[in-house]
Amino acid sequence: MIIGHMAKIAAAQLSGIELGFVLVAVLAIGNAAGRIVAGIVSDRIGGLKTMFVVFAFQAGLMLLLPRAVSPVTLAVAAAFVGFCYGANLSLFPSTTAGFFGTKHLGVNYGLVFTAWGVGGVFGSMSAGTIVDTTGSYATAYAVAAVLCVFAAGLSLITRPPAPKMATVVEHKPLRDAA
Q1: DSSP string, 122-159
Q2: Which residues in the chain come in under a pLDDT of 50?
Q3: How many angstroms separate the Cα of 63 from the Cα of each of 86, 155, 167?
């Protein structure tokens, strides 16, 4: 939602100040930093715990975004939104590999990333519809915050799948009928 709408958010919340392109660049810098930092943190505390922190932080950001009405506060918010976005892009593939191994990582992560893409398309479209209907991003931010809280909750209850137990079948030689 934020990446697709950053320039419009800037125009709406900064009373016409044209800083959308700068905020998109700031968001991209945060994105790069999030990938590195989340990878380091995930290696120390685990992917799911790191996801919880990122999702909870994103929820807080969504609640604070309506109050970001100066160029500085919106730039800081954009950097942190980008940070969380980048963090997720480093957490999802490594956690997918940790859960399911690397043998079928291409397919498994492809499914995860497809869900991410669907969320990106429909999240952005839904935000646009909400803004067109209400004339403000406030409700879109609130919906995004609720979804982030839901994601944080899921990260608390998600467990890796149990390893498959190999079934050993004892084969007895067939006796000749002769």
Answers
A1: HHHHHHHHHHHHHSSSHHHHHHHHHHHHHHHHHHHH--
A2: none
A3: 20, 20, 51
172 DSSP assignment: P
Given this model, what pLDDT does residue 11 score?
Answer: 85
**In degrees rounded to 5, what are phi and psi of residue 93?**
-70, -40
Give the residue numbers spanning the domain of 14.
2-157
Distance, CA of 69 to CA of 13 (rounded, Å): 5
Cα separation of 67 and 77, whole Å?
10
Tokens standing for residue 61:
């950001």
CATH code of the domain covering residue 32? 1.20.1250.20
Q: What is the rounded distance in angstroms from the CA atom of residue 96 to the CA atom of residue 23? A: 31
Q: What tokens appear for 164 in the block? A: 């498959």
Most distant CA atoms of the chain, gap in Å: 96
What is the model's pLDDT at position 158?
A: 93
| pLDDT tens profile 64-95 | 999 999 999 999 999 999 999 999 999 999 99
